[in-house]
Amino acid sequence: MSARPDTETREDEIRRSAGGRLTAPDLLRRKRGEPIVMLTAYTARMAEILDPHCDALLVGDSLAQVIYGLPSTLPVSLEMMATHGAAVVRGSRRALVVIDMPFRSYEEGPEQAFRSASWLLRETGAGAVKIEGGAAFAETVAFLKARGIPVMGHVGLTPQSVHTLGGYKAQGRSNEDFSQILQDALALEKAGAFAIVVEAVVEALGRSITESVECPTIGIGASPACDGQILVVDDMLGMTKRVARFVKRYEDLAGRIDAAVAAYSASVRSRAFPEHGNLY
Ligand code: KIV
Questions:
Q1: How confident is the model at residue 20, as a pLDDT?
Q2: Burial of 56 (0-12, 13-18, 19+ CB in 10 A)
Q3: Separation of 84 CA from ligand 1 center, angstroms?
Q4: Which residues of 10-43 are buried (b: 16+ CB within 10 A; e: fewer)?
Q5: 197 lines ligand 1 (CB under 6 A)
Q6: Can you tell me which atom of ligand 1 is nearest the CA of 132?
Q7: Per residue in 95-134, pLDDT tens?
Q8: Tell me: the pLDDT tens digits for 52-78?
Q9: 239 Cβ inside 6 Å of ligand 1
Q10: Which regions of the chain does DSSP assign to beta strands (E)?
Q11: Would you give the DSSP letter of residue 61?
């Protein structure tokens, strides 16, 4: 009997049995191929559950809001990303683990970015980093790639720039914005990004970027034409209170947890728990 999980291809099985993971070049080869499945992950146990289904796991700086209840991603530190990144690597075996470079860890220039990214990869064992921003960071992407660090780009709504964008709103509505974001994606691809996240843009822009660049695009509120899709895992599982329009809820985990904890609470109060089988 085969031990191959349902979602695993023969090629993946060979790689897994050889102890390998998907790599940035593997994802790059998926341009216009089988859609890339990606979710965020922040903990070892969740990574273990997601791993058989996902090609890549993003340790997103969205952990600011999701895990720490912070108002934005701006206060996230490199140390926070390293702690959660290492947990996600420990919990997964097959997926490429990508770690977000937090605000203030790369914007000064390529050297600062290399120091931060190389430290993150060394501390965690992850396979790539993600940087928010467009053409302004093309030099940094090329610098990291030349030094052995694969970079995923991120254009459109870039939450670390919430103050200059004036809020968390869809991008690319004006002609000027549309063509600027397209130019940003082209600059990142030219610089050597192995994939580009396209977040919260008008659908025509998500499609246009996907058709224009030779690396895979990973959409989040972008277009079904993208080469892959990503969501914040807590959003799609129904753990977060408010979600953007681009989120589809596949579960109501918060509701289920509420029901389970209400049952536990009632059984403790009535002394129905612990039962005989729970005792030594
Ligand atoms: O931080 C994050 O979770 C992200 C995704 C929304 C793409 O950047």
A1: 84
A2: buried
A3: 14
A4: eebeebbeeeebbebebbbebbeeeebbbbbbbb
A5: yes
A6: 8
A7: 999 999 999 999 999 999 999 999 999 999 999 999 999 9
A8: 999 999 999 999 999 999 999 999 999
A9: no
A10: 36-40, 56-59, 96-100, 128-130, 151-156, 195-199, 217-220, 228-231
A11: T
